[in-house]
Amino acid sequence: MAELIFFSGTMDCGKSTLALQMDYNHRARGRGGVRFSRNDRAGESRISSRLGLETDAVEVLDSTDFWEEVMVRRTQGQRVDYLICDEAQFYTPGQVEQLAKVVDEIDVDVFAFGITADFRTRLFPGSQRLIELADRVQVLQVEALCWCGRRATHNARTVDGVMVTEGAQVVVGDVDMVAEAAAPEAGHVPVVGYETLCRRHFMRRVTAHGASLMAQQDQLLPFEVDACLWRGSGGLGENRGT
Hints:
This protein is α/β, with parallel strands linked by helices. The strands form three sheets. It has a six-stranded parallel sheet, with helices on both faces. It has a three-stranded antiparallel sheet with strand order 10-9-11. The protein is elongated and about 65 Å long. The N and C termini lie far apart (62 Å).
């Protein structure tokens, strides 16, 4: 019987790599499928992995109807046995319900891949609906790591290397875009990046850049402090004049 399976994990844990591998495996066994994605780092209508793998896909829009996507292809004589749905956190709850209908009504397997929570630790609407409706939710076993070496459990958004906790839920960026913070200059365009952190450093807002600032200090501290309190981090310390 067909299933709706949600493969979840933080950024940088191999979701897109697994999506491409599963697509390859099913096609190698003679099954026909369709690849979908939304807001991929490589651009529109692509599924890309940080390992360098990349292929074409159907770009998902707010107007995309997965039931119609499958039925149109089948009426044209195409074989559709499964769907690969990457970046599923960006899908609408209604689209997730369409995916469930495709599984239940016409026996098409759906393999969805996505991040569970955003940079504020709040569930993406698409991910929440997938958790509610999926036959199985599988957390990927390839662990992303925090800069400290611990298992990363949270996705952090950075602006010029400094962690932020406010802003629009969806801003496309990459974990490779962790910038060195610099003094604002005229015409400076802030660089938005993402970083995976363990819960401890997420709660303390200690990014890789913040940890680097600490390491550059002459004095040794007997305890770990919030990186946003250090001068140059762009955080609270500068506002307080510390």
